[in-house]
């Protein structure tokens, strides 16, 4: 990004007052949008503000967070599938165990 994230005092005062009345999270989001219009992701803002290595570190944190959340989603889907259908959640058992479970009448 070629420009830094800065804003002036005339960047929509009514937007700032309206957003601030809703809580600081909305106010911060609006101020980021006003100050860094050319930024598409939070990593671009971090790179401009703190540099390349902070950008790489936060990128790694974001990747690991997405990885952990994806694993949790898959595990939740496995539990729901097991609960609704009764499918074994650990996969098919080995064949030698299946042969001993067959009972003849």
Care to describe what's here?
It contains five helices and no strands. By secondary structure, the chain is mostly helical. The longest helix has 34 residues, at 52-85. The protein is elongated, with a radius of gyration of 26 Å. The relative contact order is 0.08. The model has no long low-confidence stretch (mean pLDDT 76).
Keywords:
elongated, 67% helix, 2 domains, 105 residues, mainly alpha
Q: Topology of this structure?
A:
Elements: H1 13-20, H2 24-35, H3 42-50, H4 52-85, H5 95-101
Helix pairs in contact: 1-2, 3-4
Q: How many E-type strands?
A: 0
Number of helices: 5
What is the gyration radius calculated from CA atoms? 26 Å
Query: How would you characterize the largest beta sheet?
Result: none
- Estimated share of beta-strand residues: under 5%
Whole-number tally of structural domains: 2
Distance between the termini: 76 Å
What pattern of helices and strands is seen along the backbone? HHHHH
Arithmetic mean of pLDDT? 76
By helix and strand content, what is the structural category?
mainly alpha
Shape call: elongated
Low-confidence stretches: none
Proportion of helical residues: 55-70%
